[in-house]
Design a protein that fits this description.
Order of helices and strands: HEHEHEHEHEHEEHHEHEHHHH
Number of domains: 3
Helix content: 55-70%
Number of helices: 13
Radius of gyration: 22 Å
Main location: endoplasmic reticulum
Strand order of the largest sheet: 3-2-1-4-5-6-9
EC number: 1.1.1.102
Mean pLDDT: 86
Family: Belongs to the short-chain dehydrogenases/reductases (SDR) family.
Keywords: Endoplasmic reticulum, Lipid metabolism, Membrane, NADP, Nucleotide-binding, Oxidoreductase, Sphingolipid metabolism, Transmembrane, Transmembrane helix
GO cellular component, one term: endoplasmic reticulum membrane
CATH superfamily of the largest domain: NAD(P)-binding Rossmann-like Domain
Length: about 375
């Protein structure tokens, strides 16, 4: 009888008690952010994810403004959105590194309800091979540009008369959750957005402004095609395990997450697993997602260690073969010899089986949570 009672406690009462505790603990509290008939201001809105976001927001009835550097591309984007949705959007040409230009654009556009910061630049190259000007440009656009936009828009957002909640959404990257070979400058700028978002949420929550941090994977855009031309061989090997998404798919996931008030917005299964594994001290509005973070933390750490084992194994073998002057691309991609076959088999089966188990847990524990 005692054993049956203990089993009942472990299988039923303990999870229920944990859910109740997490429901009490999660902060900030859940919130819904409507976008219909509200002003959505999107940076980097002339192409890629930004253009897809503008299309989606306009289709859902938002008043859309887009900002980018190229007046020509902005006009093309406006015409494309008008043709697809019948809605005219406002366009503003400015460099996000120029605070004065950004401030003029934001003031002209009017008070913002949803500030969606999608701009960004990318260099896939080892730090040693990068020009210092490229590193600085990456930081200035991805991090300082974001701060410029927030600084320019925040006063009017705080003083808005609309009682509905507002949103500031930052488009980061899965490279802003985990560092990857060849992404030194880019990852540094995107990791910086996380610290910015976490601190900013504490500063603006009293004004009913809610921050979202979006982590898209590689996305099929002109920028990705250009990036792949310079991408180091090891970067291709390590990053090949994560698939790409279409810009329209990312835009839909991002807007859904913003409207749900999610702090962390993931776009695919790998993104959900990364967000669970790197939750740390980030805010969490959903007690169900908090439950998944707590329950899956241990097994996800094992998966993370397997991934690091795989990545560092690839790096060691790559450099070892280069030094011995026997390097071939086939070795890296397919493996040569008994040791690499064992490594590849262990990496494939161990990692995949653990990922399948995690996927089962996620779908079992949080079937109603949308990311």
């Amino acid at each position: 009888m005692a054993e049956a009672s203990f089993a009942f406690f472990l299988l039923f009462l303990l999870p229920v008690a944990l859910l109740a505790l997490l429901f009490f603990l999660v902060r900030p509290r859940p919130v819904k952010i409507p976008i219909k008939n509200r002003h959505v201001f999107i940076t980097g809105g002339s192409s890629g994810i930004g253009l897809a976001l503008a299309h989606r927001a306009a289709a859902e009835g938002a008043r859309v403004s887009i900002l980018a550097r190229s007046p020509g591309k902005l006009e093309e984007a406006r015409n494309a959105i008008r043709l697809a949705t019948g809605i005219d959007v406002a366009v503003f040409a400015a460099d996000v590194r120029d605070f004065d230009a950004v401030k003029r654009a934001v003031d002209e556009a009017g008070p913002v309800d949803v500030l969606l910061l999608n701009h960004g630049v990318f260099y896939a190259l080892e730090l040693e091979k990068m020009e210092l000007s490229e590193v600085k440009f990456t930081m200035d656009v991805n991090l300082m540009g974001t701060l410029n936009l927030i600084k320019a828009a925040l006063p009017a957002m705080k003083n808005r008369k609309d009682p509905l909640p507002a949103s500031i959404a930052l488009v980061s990257s899965q490279a802003g959750q985990v560092g990857i070979y060849g992404y030194v400058a880019y990852s540094a700028s995107k990791f910086g957005l996380r610290g910015l978002a976490e601190a900013l949420q504490q500063e603006v929550v009293a004004d009913n402004i809610h921050v979202s941090l979006i982590f898209p994977p590689d996305t099929d855009t002109p920028g990705l095609a250009e990036e792949n031309k310079r991408k180091p061989e090891l970067t291709k090997i390590i990053a090949s395990s994560s698939g790409s998404m279409k810009a329209e798919e990312v835009a839909q996931k991002a807007l859904d997450g913003i409207k749900c008030g999610n702090f962390t917005v993931s776009c695919n299964f790998e993104g959900i697993a990364l967000s669970l594994a790197t939750a740390g001290l980030s805010p969490q509005r959903s007690f169900l997602m908090a439950f998944a973070e707590v329950v899956a933390a241990g097994i996800l750490r094992i998966v993370a260690l397997c991934m690091q084992w795989s990545w560092y194994g690839s790096i060691e073998k790559y450099h070892s073969q280069r030094k011995s002057k026997c390097f071939t691309k086939r070795y890296i991609y397919e493996g040569i010899g008994k040791s690499s076959l064992i490594f590849s088999w262990c990496n494939l089966h161990l990692s995949n089986n653990l990922l399948i188990l995690i996927k089962f847990y996620i779908y079992l524990l949080v079937p109603i949570v949308k990311n």
